[in-house]
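Human: My hope is that you can spare some time for a protein that puzzles me. I am handing you a single protein, as its sequence and its fold in token form. Could you go through the record with me and say what the backbone is doing? Take your time, and here it is.
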Amino acid sequence: MTMAMTLLKLLVGLLVLTGGAEMLVRGASRLAMRFGVSPMIVGMTVVAIGTSTPELAVSVSAAFTGSTDIAMGNVVGSNICNIGLVLGLSALIWPLGVGRETRAFLFIMLASSFLVPIMSLDTQIGRVDGLILLAGMGLMTWWLVANRDRHLVEPPPDLVAETPEDDSDLTFWQQVNKSLDLLPVQIIFIVSGIALLVMGSDLIVDAARIIAMALGVSERVIGLTLVAFNTSLPELATSLVAVIRKDTAIGVGNLIGSNITNVLLVLGATSVVTAVPAGLTVARIVDLAMMLGVEIGLIVAVLRRERVGRAAGAAFVGAYLGYTIYLFVGAA
């Protein structure tokens, strides 16, 4: 396969992946709103899990095909990208305020990330480790559900009615958007989104493996950069749109929730499929230190000023670009 065809395959996979994530997030968000769950909880759970499904699909697919370096690199790289690039760019557009409820999840994010180097001490993250991570995800979800009463809101009136009013004056896209108020359509969007995510992830993993061989760099570097950036695009799009609309709580909540989900759900599910080699080599230690470093930097910025300003955003973006250059220079 020529490089042009490989890049085309990567692009098609990215488009399919992004389309699937969009359908999943739209369907799941409307479904959550139907039951009166607050936007903060939706952002931290439904949207975060929805935008992390590309990472889940790619990592599990890579594990099935034996490309465990891509799987591990994708999780760590996506977490670095979410804070370094996505949150950094968002803060450059508009300073990001962080609410008290969201702040508590910062420490859950950091604690879950510290589990990765701890579990890597025996040179691999095995099935038992994976089950522990999945149990952590289940415990967090249970806690959110158990405390849902303090976050309940009244569902929008237009989501309560199953039968739309006169649609004769609506445009085509307005009719499509209104159809999302119907429960069957929400379920169709969720199922179709998952199917597209699986298809797109297979295309991306195949293309990434070919590119790694052609460039002479390791699957680890490709997973940390190219694949991680591609699978972080849903987070990038979601957060930038939220910031542009001045709804910064959803944007920040989405990124924090996604980082938690990447470790507990994505890495957990991947290591249950097959043990993930995770020996603490110098390169691996640098990767994990970068992930923990940007997360600690976020916590420090929030605790000092209760927001992430433009200066901090520029520092995050600079750190991400410097790390990416280091990876490719080191691989050359």
